[in-house]
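For the sake of transparency, this paper describes our internal protein records without simplification. The remainder of this section carries one protein's record, kept here as part of the documentation:
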Amino acid sequence: MAAPPILRKAARVEGHRLLLRDAGEADAAFIHGLRTDPVRARHLSAVPPGVEAQRAWLRGYAGDAAQAYFIVADAAGGEPLGTVRLYGARGDAFSWGSWLLKAGLPPHCAIESALMVYHYGRWLGFQSAYFEVRQENASVWRFHENFGARRTGERDGHFQYTLAPQALAAALHRYRRYLPDGIRVAP
């Protein structure tokens, strides 16, 4: 029996119009700004008021081999557009979240960044995903349900979801026009 896949950081994951780059301390102000934006943060847990707490979290993250935290950026100019994190490896499934994008971005940014997460998870050897979304965050849970995620439960104001291997493969196929060449990973 083969060993289960493990989560690994990558320096860069390149997509069609976007790239994911490993987050570092230099990104603390950008991340803190997203996480404290009144509109973007309304479905997040509370964030300390100063940037230093975010910087400290990023220092700890740098030594944590069990997750990958990315800055979502424009592939052409490198402008930071958001964040996303993969964590919680469990057998052939991974969890993801901390998915925040700046306000006013075109819809393709959400779709492509989600596809990149799933492609990267598959590149690592994972076959499925699981995650949770706050119940009041209807636009996000509808997005995931449109991708084929199945609601599996509720807990503490969150809906729990799984994206089974067949549903994941179907979503990658259905939305392939947003990521026509897949991804390129720079470890």
Q: What stands out?
A: The helical segments are 28-36, 51-62, 107-124, 138-146, 165-174.
